[in-house]
């Protein structure tokens, strides 16, 4: 999986680097007005680090093409056989079922490079902000470490207990652009859901006083989540988490799969979510034979 993604990235940069987007900039400035970003929902698109691009989104240093990669998304589990095989593996299905999901579907996957020296920070956020369902949030993240992740190379930091908090905001398609037809309006915006949460102090940014070594994070309740290559970190959709920049000379690559509960359990994917598949195309189901397989698994677990 590791070398497979690298080969994808190298080919893409050689042939289509001018079409790549910059990441780690304000959403309203980049992702908020980007057909390339929207079209990545069920495809394989490549995104580069902010510092690697000029104001037009073109690479500054053509000799460092691969190290400019930030991530690949968001349909690896749809389009690529290697990632699809992992995403639909029995181990993933068994884990998700034991955690209580009955009809899980897979809207999104990402390969994050977190390059040595150049890998940027990811600010405080809840995954459910970007993958929102009603009448209740059901997002679950499966964060597969492909390298050892430590405080030295930009491991996850999470705030224990934050899974009990409400979803603070959602990343949605702007009705002014998509419904009213104002083509000059920003395509994607954040809308506030919960306004009195103390975590608003650092939502979408780094907590005040935080430095490149994590100073200040523990004061706000965050702890580092260090892990070995091959470890899987399971992230509840409301958990407040972030990662610092990778300023080391060590890689910290991950494959991240996100799922939500499916419609047979009375759950609806928000039609305003930024991520939407083409009309009539459902999210891949984790259950190849639907609920019948889940029921068979549940019966076997009870017998064990």
Automatic annotation (TrEMBL):
Please name the InterPro entries in this protein's record. Answer: Phytyl_CoA_dOase-like (IPR008775)
Which keywords accompany this UniProt record? Iron, Metal-binding
**GO MF annotations for this entry?**
metal ion binding
Q: Which SUPFAM superfamilies match?
A: Clavaminate synthase-like (SSF51197)
* Keyword match Repeat: no
Named cofactor requirement(s): Fe cation
| Superkingdom as given in the UniProt entry | Eukaryota
- Report what the protein is called: Phytanoyl-CoA dioxygenase
Q: Which organism is it from?
A: Effrenium voratum
